[in-house]
Amino acid sequence: MKVTLRIFRFNPETDSEPYYKDYEIEADPKDRVIDVLHYIKNEIDGTLTFRRSCLHGICGSDGMRINGKNMLACSILLQDLGYSDANKTYKKPIVIEPLPGMPIIKDLVTDFTDFWKKYEAVKPYLITKSPPPERERLQSPEDVELIMEASKCILCACCTTSCPSTWSNEDYLGPAALLKAYRFIFDSRDEATDERLDIIDTPNGIWRCHTIFHCVQACPKEINITWHISKLKQKLVEREI
Fold it and tell me: Does the pTM exceed 0.85?
């Protein structure tokens, strides 16, 4: 089938402003978006730049905006983007853009520096103050279940860059960082709950979330991020009672 990809292009070293370039190729409906991007780069235009690593929805490297929605390019098939079986073609181009709200390094590659700073701010690691046990720190199945979904986050930034609160306030921690805060605040082995609650209990922290649910819609791992954030809000309110 024939498919046209309309790809956002911008090289800050040579371009005065971004532009879109169309590539018409033959592809299989079961090809992934990342497959056709590879084909374009390898066979048509070697200057096209994008990130990818594992190609199996685990590393989170290839998050981008596809037809107006944040997705992983390795996890979406062409047939899921409007393919018409009747005439073996697409009714309109597939538009591929970088994740919104981030500085652009080149083409589909964005600068994650600020994203990682906010991630690091919530101290995304186990903190213990009591002496270590002779063996591992045990958890019950119930304790594990409490943090299991939050642990599936692959830090692709699809949620954070889909959040209107992030677009309007560059200092907002964002859903990815808050989800990681939940993962450790609700970890029964961790002993820094109040420390992390203080970090997120700020005007640019958890209270900047207005429960719009864009993060839930964008998450490629189908994590109910808003629910986790609501549990953090509940824990903060209970702390004040």
Answer: yes
Cα–Cα dist 65/8, whole Å: 10
SS3 content of the chain, % helix, strand, coil (to 5): 35, 15, 50
pLDDT tens digits, residue range 168-219?
999 999 999 999 999 999 999 999 999 999 999 999 999 999 999 999 999 9
CATH number of the domain encompassing residue 215? 1.10.1060.10
Clarify whether residues 125 and 227 are in a common domain.
yes
Do 13 and 85 fall within a single domain? yes
Helices assigned H by DSSP within the chain: 33-39, 113-121, 141-148, 164-168, 175-185, 193-200, 214-218, 225-240
Task: Kindly report the CATH number assigned to the domain that includes residue 40.
Answer: 3.10.20.30
Show the domain range for 203.
113-240
